[in-house]
């Protein structure tokens, strides 16, 4: 399975279920003091045999910076697997979630670890606590913190773009369109978490929501590593037309600027549309998106009545087929057409022309 097919399969499942993801690897970790080569990031490498650790000290801590605030559902901690005498090292450690970076012990407590057996992974519910920082601190003297793996599970709200078909005017290498709706804001490695076009005139990106929604807001996350000014001047457009690839639809907002790595929200006041586009007008421009989130209500299911006068003796189903085809061409799929009442036939009588006599000259 290639990268694009993997994303499509994943997003199909996410679209059907509540979206709960482990976001721990999206952030950067730190320790109060590093013990030898037991780096903080070891707790995020997927292996329980490479652990992070502080030396013995007063009030040691391990901290994860997720770079933005999340609503945390639960945190998992894995203890050292090959050291029975180390089993008590995490006893009494506190798991904290909050937005305070320096004074870590001032963040609210999610849970207190009583004990974790050797090599076991325990899960601690945080019930939606909000915070940018996840801290494991062990209060007291002659203490250490040795998490071998840390997981942070977040419930994402109903992003309408999740699992939908996306496309862009061009693709720069591995910066494929789907990475703009993969939930990952691209803090660590942008090329595997963000979408980007090549340098071109009027670059654009589009998501097809399949149905028409009332869009209340759109959230755009800019890249962190460089060149945040590239997004300046981008237009967010919402509508039902695919004319000019959807870039002629009404404008929700124009992005003046977004700081590096920041997520900015744009209010769309319940604009109705199936397609959400971002386009940067101008020459030699690049459109890079690390995350696009679309929020609103719907789908909007409307019943419309159409009065038709048929001038053909063809089957009554033929006009409906033509009308449905025309609607599909304009972006309206999943349309059902039916007669609200049986059509009435109007009989047209044609008067016979008066007889004429031909006059033959002699």
From TrEMBL:
SMART domains the UniProt entry points to: FTP
Keywords, in A-Z order: Calcium, Disulfide bond, Lectin, Metal-binding
Pfam families in the cross-refs: F5_F8_type_C_2
Keyword Disulfide bond tagged: yes
InterPro entries for the chain: BG_Antigen-Binding_Lectin, FTP1, Galactose-bd-like_sf
Family assignment from sequence similarity: Belongs to the fucolectin family.
Complex and partners: Homotrimer.
Protein name (record): Fucolectin tachylectin-4 pentraxin-1 domain-containing protein
Source organism phylogeny: Eukaryota, Metazoa, Chordata, Craniata, Vertebrata
